[in-house]
Design brief:
The structure is a single chain. The chain is built from 13 helices and 16 strands. By secondary structure, it is of the alpha/beta class. It folds into two domains: 79 residues, no CATH class; 348 residues, Alkaline Phosphatase, subunit A (3-Layer(aba) Sandwich), CATH 3.40.720. The protein has an eight-stranded mixed β-sheet. A hairpin with a 7-residue loop joins β1 and β2. The longest helix is centred in the last third of the chain and has 25 residues.
């Protein structure tokens, strides 16, 4: 694999306060990292290093794509399948608690949880997988399994879906947007290294900030406390002081530097950066999404895929409900219902649903039997034996249910679906050859999806809904 790197904004872990540590010297701001990265890229073009690396995504992608982008709604912590898309009202109070009703959808025979009335009206647009399984009950290892399709604990650290899509549909496949090809709203999942052995080039750019605020302060793009006019004035002052550049207008290196600066400011002040300005949307639409972080993140995701960004993750926290589960559900589920239902409707209205996969899932479900005893007092624990996922768009059929759990939601009753089955199905819709080899720093042979020899459990691709 070539070591040539194209510029990205990088990623940030919580608590880093918008700073990036260099190889040596003090930390630098993300805005400065962007500027330096673009300058470095310009230098590589002059040096003849601007071409594709030896490994080419264009050569590896051999199947016809139905989907161009993915919006992943990552339910961090693990949502309860019984309270969302696999209700079991007949199981009784010890399993349902006070949420003991299911409601019909606009598709005959499909029932979902009572706190999701808006999603019930959109069921013709999505399919529910009620037999997801992997048997892992720990956050880190379950997250790794669901997002890579590989077993945790081995010597290899495999890339997650977003990193693989960034590889095949990002810079190596001709993506030329200034916005990085893999975006997380608003902070990384924090459970594993998303890029794995692919390296930092394929890590997501986490926006930070809060899209529900009056100004969405995107780290490295929007400067908190500095207006666009002030930023423009700073740029003009810089140009006035740049007598060296003015005196050597024909110098190739300085021309490349000027081009890099132009790209950086286009992202900060130009049309590229305006994708993050939600004030351009009508108040009525923003209200329909919900004036909260999740709702506005859904709107932001639609704007990003509309701009051609291949992979967007909405990191939706707050689902690890060991205690006060039902109180949390009464607050969180209406919020989720509003944002996700509006996203489906909005994607369809803009003609984007056919080319955009929407993937809703957490790392596992939650214990079907409610933990009424101390110290849980009505909570639900981790549960990887069976849980639900939802997919829509990008070639996935709507109005379908795949698989089933048993009467109490404790085990898979029919058609087990493992993470690699779902991931492989998404790759195929994206036109990614699942048998292609991934570039490995040690030259090892690693395919896009696991082979039978790797010992990963498989139930088969989701042909029922593709």
């Amino acid at each position: 694999m070539s070591t040539t790197h194209r510029p990205t904004l990088g990623s940030q872990r919580p608590g880093s306060a918008g700073l990036i540590s260099g190889m040596c010297g003090p930390p630098i701001s993300r805005r400065e990292a962007l500027r330096r990265g673009l300058i470095g890229a310009a230098g590589m073009v002059l040096a003849g290093g601007g071409g594709l690396p030896a490994w080419s995504a264009r050569q590896q992608a051999k199947t016809k794509a139905k989907a161009k982008s993915v919006i992943q709604i990552w339910m961090w912590g693990g949502p309860s399948h019984l309270d969302t898309f696999d209700p079991k009202p007949e199981a009784g109070y010890d399993y349902c608690g006070p949420l003991n009703k299911s409601i019909p959808t606009n598709v005959d025979g499909i029932m979902i949880g009572e706190l999701l009335p808006l999603l019930a009206k959109q069921a013709d647009k999505y399919s529910i997988i009620r037999s997801m399984t992997h048997g892992i009950n720990a956050h880190e290892t379950a997250s790794y399994m669901v997002q890579t399709g590989r077993k945790p604990g081995g010597r290899q650290v495999f890339p997650c879906v977003g990193a693989v899509v960034s590889l095949f549909r990002g810079y190596d496949a001709g993506y030329r947007g200034l916005i990085p090809p893999y975006i997380v709203l608003t902070e990384p999942q924090g459970r594993f290294s998303e890029a794995g052995f692919l390296g930092t080039r394929y890590k997501p750019f986490a926006t930070g900030g809060n899209p529900a605020q009056s100004r969405f302060v995107v780290e490295g793009v929007v400067a908190e406390g500095i207006s666009d006019q002030r930023q423009q004035e700073r740029r003009e002052l810089l140009h006035k002081l740049n007598t060296f550049g003015s005196a050597m207008k024909d110098n190739a290196s300085l021309a490349a530097l000027a081009q890099a600066e132009e790209q950086a400011y286009d992202l900060i002040l130009g049309d590229a950066g305006k994708v993050f300005d939600l004030s351009q949307e009508k108040d009525e639409l923003r209200d329909r999404y919900g004036r909260n972080t999740f709702g506005q993140s859904c709107l932001m995701a639609r704007r990003l895929v509309e701009k051609g960004v291949p992979y967007v993750t909405i990191n939706y926290k707050g689902w690890d409900t060991h205690k006060q589960h039902f109180q949390t559900m009464r607050r969180k589920l209406p919020e989720m219902d509003k944002g996700m239902a509006t996203l489906l409707e909005d994607l369809s209205k803009h003609g984007l649903l056919e080319s955009t996969i929407l993937w809703w899932s957490g790392e596992f479900g939650r214990t079907p039997k409610v933990l009424w005893e101390e110290p849980w007092n009505g909570g639900r624990g981790h549960y990887g034996r069976v849980f639900s996922a939802v997919v829509a768009g990008g070639g996935f059929k709507g109005g379908r249910v795949v698989g089933a759990s048993d009467a109490k939601g404790e085990d898979v009753l029919d058609r087990p679906v493992y993470p690699c089955d779902l991931i492989g199905s998404m790759y195929e819709l994206l036109g990614i050859d699942t048998g292609a080899k991934l570039p490995h720093p040690l030259g090892l042979t690693v395919h896009v999806t696991p082979t039978a020899e790797e010992g990963v459990r498989m139930g088969g691709r989701l042909k029922e809904i593709t």
